[in-house]
Amino acid sequence: MVGDPVTEARRLAPRFAARAGASDRDGGFPVDDFADLRAAGLFGLMVPAALGGAGAGFRTYAETAYELARGNGATALVFNMHASVTGALGAVTPELAEALGLPDEAIAARDGYLRAAAAGSWYAVAMSERGAGSRLSQLSTVYEPVDGGYHLKGSKTFCSGAGHADAYLVAARSVTDQAVVSQFLVPAGDGLTVEPTWDALGMRATGSHDLHVDATVPQGALLGGVEGLALVVAQLMPHWMVASYAAVYVGVAQSAVDAAVAHVRERRLTGLPAVRARIGRADAAVAAARLAVFEAARRVDEAPGDPETNQWVWRAKLLAGTTAAEVAASMLEAAGTSAMRRGHPLERLYRDARAGSLQPATSDVCADWLGVEALGGDPDSDGSAPRW
Ligand SMILES: Cc1cc2nc3c(=O)[nH]c(=O)nc-3n(C[C@H](O)[C@H](O)[C@H](O)COP(=O)(O)OP(=O)(O)OC[C@H]3O[C@@H](n4cnc5c(N)ncnc54)[C@H](O)[C@@H]3O)c2cc1C
């Protein structure tokens, strides 16, 4: 790591902001932002210090992601995928490995992936599928054991950073037992084909294309070294599955407030009470969502997996997603029609912010989880459909 991660992220944000409009317009991947992230050592953010990384906790991740998103939400969102992979891998302590019965060879392979991340490799997530979304229990991608490893076959969608990452976390079900869902780290190259399908309303620069997988990987690519861990990890570390995007969308929301402030100053609209009140309400809403996200992150560091921590994790995702969409819409209205022109920052931020509630856990799913919890049920198993 070159310096303090949050300070580094603050330094990079204006560089990202300067490039954000062009990559949004063309739907091009922000390769220069990723070169900056690599040079700053941020791919090692979640890698334990013993393996060459910054050894950051979830709170530091959340603050870093928030600052990056103030520059470009799309860049921060792709970075979130890498942080989720390295964060979950790095969080496997010797005690947890022992409790889950993980073999030593799997821990050695894990250490290799984390060392590579600290040295500048970055990982994408290929979990979602057309028809199944991110519901792990419904995936159609399958794997089977072959000599020396596994063969994986299937098609993924919404894979942010497809074609640019060094390796992909691929979730798949066992051919022999469809209830067994495992995750593999598949290196870029042979066996992976990117189909450029991502031309979306918002987060256009994430390059979230389809990815077709027909690859054979060595034994060490099975994360954890034991089959069937994917659903266990989702339950054990909901912060990476549910809430890591939250900081990104609060950063996008803050950017919308900043862009509106700049616009109304420039247009000399600051004396209008309705405009001022919109900005005031947005300021308070973003501050509240940020507090909730940072509180959830603090609790993840102090008591990971604790029922109250998990409650904050789901609250944080819900508040961040809805706040981003509402604030960006209100800021556009405060700024007026001239901010709706293509190329205006608020026009992009309005579209980017819209994606927050749609990313799993969607705002509706978060609200359901919290409602079941508040009513005394078991929110992980009493939903109207399986959570994962
Ligand atoms: C910008 C962006 C980047 C992304 N990047 C990645 C990535 O890098 N890797 C990746 O794997 N995926 C990625 N995704 C995909 C995302 O994580 C989801 O998998 C995807 O959005 C879900 O797909 P879906 O359209 O089938 O919707 P679903 O999640 O299936 O939702 C459809 C509807 O069903 C509801 N619903 C879903 N589940 C439940 C439930 N359990 N109970 C009740 N209601 C439910 C939802 O609220 C919604 O109304 C990205 C998505 C976006 C928007």
UniProtKB/TrEMBL annotation:
Residues 124-214 form the Acyl-CoA oxidase/dehydrogenase middle domain. Its cofactor is FAD. Keywords: FAD, Flavoprotein, Oxidoreductase. It holds the Pfam family Acyl-CoA_dh_1. It comes from the Bacteria. GO terms for molecular function: acyl-CoA dehydrogenase activity; flavin adenine dinucleotide binding. Residues 11-87 form the Acyl-CoA dehydrogenase/oxidase N-terminal domain. The keyword Membrane does not apply. Residues 243-357 form the Acyl-CoA dehydrogenase/oxidase C-terminal domain. Belongs to the acyl-CoA dehydrogenase family. This is BEC protein. It comes from Spirilliplanes yamanashiensis.
